[in-house]
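Thread: quick sanity check before group meeting

JM: Hey all, I'm pulling together slides for Thursday and realized we never actually wrote out the predicted structure for the chain we discussed last week. Dropping the sequence here so it's in one place. If anyone has concerns about the input, flag it before I start.
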Amino acid sequence: MLLRWLILHVCVTHAELKLVMRVVADHGRFAHATGDAKKAKLDKRIARNARLAFLVGVLTVHAENPRLVAAAVVAVPTATVLLALRVTGLLR
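JM (edit): ok, ran it. Output follows.
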């Protein structure tokens, strides 16, 4: 549900949505065929747009390891709150 919300709010146009889905699908096919996900090339339009690059990264990580994304949903906000408390001096 969180990924669906993220996709719908990050992709502004249908063209962006199609591009992101195509890049993630191509990455999955390339990683499955070669066994090496690190050598997959990123589309130039994705590389130039931080929003879409972030979304492709999250979806790629989710495709490879869903547990990591589920843990990050809990860990990142917790770490942010702890950092804010540490900076304000409430946590030592």
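AS: nice. The chain is about 80% helix and 0% strand. The mean pLDDT is 83.
JM: adding both to the slides.
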